[in-house]
Amino acid sequence: MSVDKNSRYRSSHEWARKDGARYLVGISDHAQEALGDIVFVELPEVGKRLKQGEAFGVIESVKAASDVYMPMSGTIVAVNDAVSGDPALVNREPYAGGWLVAIEASAPAEWDGLLDAAAYEAEAGKE
Amino acid sequence: MNQTRLHDWHLAAGAKMAPFAGYDMPISYPIGSVEEHLVTRRSVGLFDIDHMGQVEVTGPGADAFVSRLVSARVLDMKDGDARYSLLLSEGGTVIDDLFVYKIPGAWWIVVNASNREEDLAWMNSLARAHEREFGQVHIVDRSEETYMIAVQGPRAIELLDLVSDTKVSELVRFTSGNAKVLGVPCLVGRTGYTGEDGVELFFPAEDAVRLWTGLLSEGEKRGIETKAIGLGARDSLRFEAGMPLHGHELSKEISPLEAGFKWACDLEKDFVGKEAVLRLAESGATRKLVGLSVSGGVPREGYEVQDEGGRKVGTVVAGMFCPSVKLYAANAFVEPAVAKSGTALRVIIRGKPAPAVVVKRPLYVPTYRR
Which listed residue, of A96, A112, B90, B200, carries a Cα 20 to 30 Å from B223's Cα? Predict the structure, then answer.
């Protein structure tokens, strides 16, 4: 399992990372490995407003469909079209090319409540 | 939970394991189900299928018994022949689907792991009920002492020829013969469940690790890409090739006529379930198995199928991403009126209608039908 030091995490295995004025959101390496081959990604429409913990999309692996949840509250300002065309990109590069959505945070203080890389690694490692 | 003799090997290889038919089985290895599928289509895949059951039938009444037991014609089979068949209930629904091998002095019947107990009970009760008519029949479960590995893919026969004491390539499709593979005495069936050429090997269980690891290393050594394949890819390979999985396209609630398996029923002979099959043929099936190509998500078992007006017309029994044809596809039972190829339908995925179109099965034409 690899973790990205610059991201923070939710226990449900999503990460968020500051990217200029917005945050990029994706799923962790641990999550992609547990899901197995990802074959379909459903992403929200740009402009959708969601609260922390609400499902923003669905990731379908060979065997199952799983919801993915907002690590922070905010508005979807971009979705990664590359993963819609090549869902396995999430398996190959969960922290880079396999990001899912970009959000404008409506409650930036939520960042402080997320797990840092070391804490997430310790928690996910127990699974 | 049962384990196969390759269980430790699967764990050491980093396989994701899950229960299947009472066995802890490898679902995928670290290369992933999609790549495993593609390896089998381009070179060689090895499948641990020891969970499959094998039943040996012998005795003076064996021929008459097997002919009554299964739906396909079997009395014309010669030693070495292998044939797909169905085990039907009196009600004409499918208890199991199986491969029947005629070998010298015996019938060798390969059954699904999850149905083994029920199949055996059914076979024994049929044999007892008709002992006077058939003559004596001996039914022996050989599953424990028999190991089963499938070697499948366009280079499978090439690999087997290199490591066997007889030419496996001389076996025609759907026949079997004896060979020593890496020194292990095997019954070799030129059969499979992937749509590719290849074999299924039956051999003494104690040789499982030796033969499995031997085939992998021989493949490597001879430049023939050979990989272990989990049940995830086994499912997508069989699905693309149009082969049924009992519990999905066939079950005790499904008639062979609904699932498109009339060809596996020999209506010129007497077999259990024949009357019911004839009755349904007379009245007409009220649903039909079709293939659907779907966009906007992965169709999965249990999803509702609707017509374009939003009326329910059927249900998905299996669905997935198909790596070779690169489609999201489903098998569904639908009303006959919407079963024609090209019909536009919808599959309800997470509450939303996803566009679907009825497509010809199989999506991937098996090599032996080309």
Answer: B200
